[in-house]
Every structure is written in C-alpha cells, then in structure tokens.
Amino acid sequence: MKTLIEDVTCAGCYCACDDIQVTSDGQQIQEVQTTCSQGQVWFERAAITDQLVPRILGRPVSQKEAIERAVELIQQSLAPLVTGLSQSSTDAQRAAVALADQLGATIDTGAAAVTRALQQVGEATCTLGEVRSRADLIIYWGAADLLVNANHRQSLETNSAEVSRKVIVMGEACSRETEFADEYIQVEPERELEVIWQLRALLKGVDLAGKEPVGIAESELQSLASQLKQSKYSVFFTGPEFKQGALAHRKLEALSLLIKEIQSERRCHAITVPAAKETKGAEHVLAWQTGYAAAVNFASGFPRYSPGEYQATRLLEQSEVDLCILVGGNPQAGLSEQTIKCLSNIPSIQIGPALIKDFQPHVFLPAGITGIHFPGSMYRYDGTPLPLRGFLPTVQNSEAEVLIQISKTL
Ligand code: SF4
C-alpha cells in the first residue's frame, strides 16, 4: 500500500529542507517530490544501503568479523584520528566524540577555518526565519551557489510588504550574472582580508582619503559602507569561496569583528555556508561535548584544543596519525585531494551508508541513513536543530550504533 509521507527533512546538504513529500510502499521509496537533483540522489541512496555488507580490504565479512578487525586496528594504533562527520546525525557525531575520548584520539572535521574563527572570536549569527522577516540587506560573499539555490531562495520569501530588501553579491565569481542580485561587487580573493579592514575603517569614520583601496574599486567600497550604515538589519552569507586560502580563518575573524562593530548601532549577523553536499553540526556537537568546536585531542585524558596541531588535514599530510576513522555519508568533506591521497598510506575504518569512490578502507562498516531508516536530528546551516524521520525498515545499524558497538568491544 502506498503511503504519502509529508514534510520529510532531507539531510543531503546543509539546507536541511524539511518540506519534502515522499511516497513509499513501506519497504522502498517510490517517489520523492523535490526539484533538487542532489536531494533525489540522497533519497535514492536508501535503495542500495541494504545491499552493503561489512568488508575487510574489500572482502565481504560478517559484522562481527569487521568489528573485531576494527577493534584490532584501534588497539594497534598509537595516534588515531576520528574525522568526517558530514551528513551524519547529531547522535552519530556525539558517539564519535565519545569514541575519540575513549581512545585518546584526535577528532576534527573538514570545516577547519570556520571553527577556528568561531573558537577565536565567536559568531554573531541568526536563524533563516530572522533573515526572512527582518533583513533589508543581504550580502552573499563567496556564496554565489547559495543565491541560486531555489530551496534557499524559497526559504527567504516573504509576503510582508514591510520588508524591502537589497541583495549584493561579492567575491571573485560575482560576475556570474544572476537575476536574484541587485548589485555585484568584484573583490580580489587574496585581498578580501584588507577589504574587510578598509570597510571597518570607513564605518568607524577613519578618513581613507589619499589611500587607494586595495582589492575593490573605491566607489564600491564607499557604496557598501554607506549601505551598511543605512541598513536596519544586514546579513552576510559567507560561502565556500570566501573560506579558501591559508588566511581563511583570519577573514572570518575580521568579518566577525566588523559585524560586532556594526551591531553597536544596528542589527547585523553572519551565516557561514558549507560547500555542496556538506552539512554543519559537528562543530556544535564538539563544542557542547568538549568546549571546543574542532581540532580536539584526548591523548592527555581531557580535551585539548590546538588548531595548528590537531587539524585533520595537517595530521594526515604530515603522517602524524596511524589510523583514521571516517564517519558519515560524506566523510571526506573538506579534505583536499592531497589529504585524501595521504589517507591511503594508513589503515582506515569507514562507517557510513555508502562506499567512497576510488577509496578502499581497511574495514568498512555499513550503516543505515538517519532521516530515512532512523529518526534523529541534524543542524541546518543557520544552526537550527531539526528532527529527522525514520520511515523505512533496514537491515543495517545506525552510525551511532556501530560506533557504540566498537566502543563496547574495546
Ligand atoms: S537543497 Fe540540500 S537539503 Fe534541500 S533537497 Fe537539495 S540536497 Fe536536500
């Protein structure tokens, strides 16, 4: 018998759209009503998850054998790393933190720049509901893809005649014309930090006369400063292009400081946006479990934070870990190509609902999908936690259950 399930949340990316209609016969998904191709792919994954079997070096084995081999690898390891946690539920992220604590391991996500800035200066952020109801100036900086995301645009639509809104697109790729922006400001990516500092100076009334602005045309810098001054509620969406480069965390810190200064007179917030197929949330779970949003090491028996030392990318590239435990539906999120190559040099355990293309972990432990097979929760990119439904049966365990099985077998 066909059943229509309404308002299902998709965990296929940071948007966490929660208005999707799914038709199911109780065993399989038959139809997903969404125009998002990425969302369709995420729901289609449910059809193959049940066929996945535990593997050791590609060889199918029983769950018990795979868990025992994973435990052996963990016991042989002196410096394990737990990473990934993108497209994972809050429960799985919490179980991953608990396992890292038990092992004395390092745990980090791929969202290094954001979490580093968050730890340093905090974050002045808001929900999408506030943006929709109040923002009169929205600036997409290095987030052109978000602007053209139909689900995102729909989430900001308002029928209120009181909200008259201006949309500015900033960054290197802003020349890509879109009908959804009112203004485009080209900024040289390597000069973005200086642009923020110049903006701070202008908003504080510092006279920049005689000093040629760098990275941005002078008229555009002046116009931006004046629009921020006139706005009652401005919001910056910073996307993946804004977070590139060695100084990405400094840019995010500078933007946070700019926003705090604007807040002394009017409302201003920022929402950081991950790359496509990535989700947010692991940084929140890490923060409320350990006090730190990323790059946490438990080797001393308590959580220590050191982004320079415990960043997953650096540890893998410098061969400072001897085992990697990858968790989640998109466990390589945020890792560079070079880092992914380094992953093949050490033993790895992968726990998740899909095999990674062109990568063979030493142990693969399949898991069902939270949001389709299991209920749970996840964070949307504005930091709002949303419930996930479990509406199909599965032969698999959840990621959290697999992590707990390993923990109990140790
Ligand atoms: S935008 Fe993201 S959350 Fe929304 S349907 Fe597409 S993949 Fe799913």
TrEMBL record:
GO MF term set: formylmethanofuran dehydrogenase activity
GO BP annotations listed: methanogenesis
Record SUPFAM superfamilies: Formate dehydrogenase/DMSO reductase, domains 1-3
Name of the featured protein: Formyltransferase/hydrolase complex Fhc subunit B
